[in-house]
Model the fold of this input.
Amino acid sequence: MKKVKIIAALLIVLLFLVIHIAAPGFIPEVAELLSHGDIVETAEYIRGYGSLAVVFAFLLTLFVNALGFPPAIIFSTANTLIFGIFWGIVISVVAETVGVTISFLLLRFFFREQAEKIISKSKFLSRMDQYSGEKGFIVMLIARMVPYIPSALLNAVGALSSLSLRDYFISSLIGKFPSTGIEAIIGHDTILQEEDPTRIIIVVIFAVVLIGWAWYYEQKVKVQ
Done:
């Protein structure tokens, strides 16, 4: 397994090397963009890709969420400025979910084995690990719904716990709609100096409905 992990790490490095060789200026440009964290600048950079802007926006949002830095609000807001609030949120949520799922898989692959060794030595950690497998879905769902919680933290907690990939993916996908929606709408309206509380109210109501569905899923569906 150790050799497999080394090979996997080398393949990731090779991927970035191939990208750099194919487009030498791309990685430095993106790195500089990420370091600035400027929403308007990010939106303009994405617009520069013309007809491929939606593809680049998706991939950039995915990459940032897999990396866990910088804050996803920069890119979700930029997407709403380019594609409008509805499609900007949809693109952001799907891309963010794919990104955090990739992060989950990589973190679990590289670090879950070591985490299990540490957990096995503590009764408290063992109970928490068992709880994460049984109730992790609802916990992760609610955590994803809360705006401004660092994505990298939730990625790590999910990957090192007993939460299943299916529950992690579903809870992240559904949970990100209200949190991303609130973050993006607030950012969008702040930059464009617009005020429309109706959109936030709709997102909050949607979040309440999702929590109710999550409770039903936890109580009824998973028992079967």
Q: What stands out?
A: Residues 37-221 form one domain. The chain has a mean pLDDT of 81.
